[in-house]
Each structure stands twice: as structure tokens, then as C-alpha cells.
Write a structure and sequence with these properties.
- This protein is α/β, with parallel strands linked by helices and 286 residues long.
- It is built from 13 helices and 9 strands.
- The protein has a 5-stranded mixed sheet. It has a two-stranded antiparallel ribbon with strand order 1-2. Strands 3-4 form a two-stranded parallel sheet.
- Strand 3, helix 4 and strand 4 form a beta-alpha-beta unit.
- Helix 4 packs antiparallel against helix 6 and helix 6 packs antiparallel against helix 7.
- It is globular and about 55 Å long.
- 38% of the residues are buried.
């Protein structure tokens, strides 16, 4: 493969045409490993009783708490035996078409760098803690793993039809910030929540956000916030039904796409299955 070089947060070495790099696990410092351990310990205390059981079990099965920052090759060997997925190191965010191709081929691209100490509570771009701790465990679930593959396969068509924002909303409201019905209530499964201590509590326990039942078209037509907690969380019944939602032809939904026609993130529709009508107090400042 052709290789290019560019400066990034962490020394990468050669960058392949598919934007993958060598993780260079042995070059992480003791301080960086300690940072992973501290991040892991904090979330490990918060997530029992909040995260879905599939996530919690997979964290143990994949031994994400072992030896600081995980070695992606060893982690991939364990994950591949479960669902055929591997985790590949990348220096930063990758182009959309590259990202979709990785997912379609059961490869999850994970940033190789870990956040600095001053970014402990919040980081703008996804680092290895967000990508590996937040995303990788549920790839051990067969239905979720197949959903991620199907999502990747659908990416090229969304680009071709000029409807990428609609597909991005599906990713945002499920893979990043999704809730699931479990144990007579709600549990977390979105990676953006799993890797954030504040949103871990907010998504489940705060009165402000709306929590409504998942509907594919509804999700794909709903704007989201990138700068704060979510004003609305969508709740799936289980991963099998999430996977089933990708079996339909998205083209008719894409054909309705208009950037100025999406629902605001605070909106509740008459057709929604409303689990909790939020006060929106956090967002209004009241």
C-alpha cells in the first residue's frame, strides 16, 4: 500500500493508504498507561447498574483493564475469536469513505493517542480510551457487531445520494449516545456516554433530556448536539431489533433529505413513544 507521513498527536511512523498505522504499543510511557488506568477505574466504578450487561461482560472477557493501554493486536486476537472483528490503529479521524470501508470489513479504527492530563474530563476528538473502552466491548455481541458491519456497508450509498447527514444521525443516536431497554428500565450502550463520567449520569438520571423509543426514520431526521449533553436519547428494545432496522432499503428515506427539514433535538412528536418527557431545564439554564 502507498504510504504518507504527517504530524499528529502521537508519533505515528508511516501511514498506510487506508490510514492505518502501527500502534507502537511499547512506546507508550508509564504516565500514559497510568492515565488509561485512571480513566478505566473511574468508569468501572460508575457503569455497573448503568451500562448494559453485554458491555460489562465484554469488558471483562476482553481484559481491557490489563496492563494499561491495550495492545490492539492482542485485543484484536481475542475479539476476532468472538465475532470476527479486529481493531486497527489510526492517527486521528479518518475520511468518511475510509471509515465506512473499515467497518464494512469488520475493522474498527481506533485513535492511537491517549488524551493529555488536562483533557481528562473532556476531549474534542476521539482518543484510544473513547474508541477502545467506549466502542470495542459491544463488538463482542454478534447482533451489534453485524449492525456495525451493515452500517459500514451503507456508507458509500449515503455518500452517493448526498444523504450522509442522515446516516450520521443514526450513528450518533445509537452507536455514540444510545440507550437500551434492560432490567425493567434503561441502560447505556452508546460509546460517547460510556467514556464520559458526567454523561453516564446525565443520560439516565437527569430530568432534562427527552427519552423516546427508537424509530429509524425519526432518528435519521433529528438533529443532534456536538457541544454538550444530548437533549434527546433514543431507546432501543434490543440489539437484534437494531440490526433488523438496517435490513430495509434506506433510499426512500434518503430521498426526503433536506438539511433545513430536520427536527430539533428538543422536539417531541405526537407519533413518538415517549418514555420520559424532559424538562429541558439543563439546556434552558433554569
Amino acid at each position: 500500500m502507498a504510504e504518507i507521513a504527517a504530524p499528529f498527536r502521537r508519533e505515528t511512523g508511516p501511514i498506510a493508504a487506508d490510514h492505518t498505522i502501527s500502534q507502537n504499543w511499547d512506546r507508550y510511557t508509564d504516565e500514559e498507561h497510568a492515565r488509561w488506568d485512571a480513566l478505566f477505574e473511574r468508569q468501572a466504578k460508575l457503569l455497573p447498574g448503568r451500562a448494559c450487561q453485554d458491555f460489562l461482560h465484554a469488558v471483562e472477557r476482553l481484559t481491557l483493564s490489563d496492563s494499561g493501554i491495550p495492545d490492539l493486536e492482542r485485543l484484536s486476537d481475542r475479539l476476532e475469536r468472538m465475532t470476527g472483528w479486529r481493531v486497527v490503529a489510526v492517527p486521528d479521524l479518518v475520511p468518511d469513505d475510509v471509515f465506512f470501508d473499515h467497518l464494512a470489513n469488520r475493522r474498527f479504527p481506533a485513535g492511537a493517542f491517549i488524551r493529555e492530563a488536562h483533557e481528562f474530563d473532556y476531549i474534542e476528538e476521539p482518543d484510544i480510551f473513547h474508541d477502545v473502552f467506549g466502542h470495542v466491548p459491544l463488538l463482542a455481541n454478534p447482533a451489534y457487531a453485524s449492525f456495525m458491519e451493515a452500517y459500514g456497508r451503507g456508507g458509500a450509498r449515503a455518500i452517493e445520494m448526498g444523504a450522509l447527514p442522515m446516516l450520521a444521525r443514526l450513528y450518533w443516536y445509537t452507536i455514540e449516545f444510545g440507550l437500551i431497554e434492560e432490567a425493567g428500565g434503561f441502560r447505556l450502550f452508546g460509546a460517547g456516554i460510556m467514556s464520559s463520567p458526567r454523561e453516564t449520569r446525565f443520560a439516565l438520571e437527569d430530568d432534562s433530556p427527552n427519552r423516546i423509543g427508537f424509530s429509524l426514520e425519526r432518528v435519521m431526521n433529528t438533529e443532534y448536539r456536538i457541544d454538550d449533553f444530548q437533549q434527546i436519547y433514543f431507546v432501543i428494545p434490543d440489539f437484534e431489533q437494531l440490526l433488523a432496522s438496517t435490513a430495509i432499503d434506506f433510499a426512500p428515506i434518503y430521498a426526503t433529505f433536506r438539511l433545513d427539514n430536520a427536527y430539533g433535538p428538543e422536539t417531541i412528536l405526537a407519533s413518538d413513544r415517549v418514555f420520559h418527557r424532559g424538562s429541558q431545564a439543563y439546556f434552558s439554564g433554569t
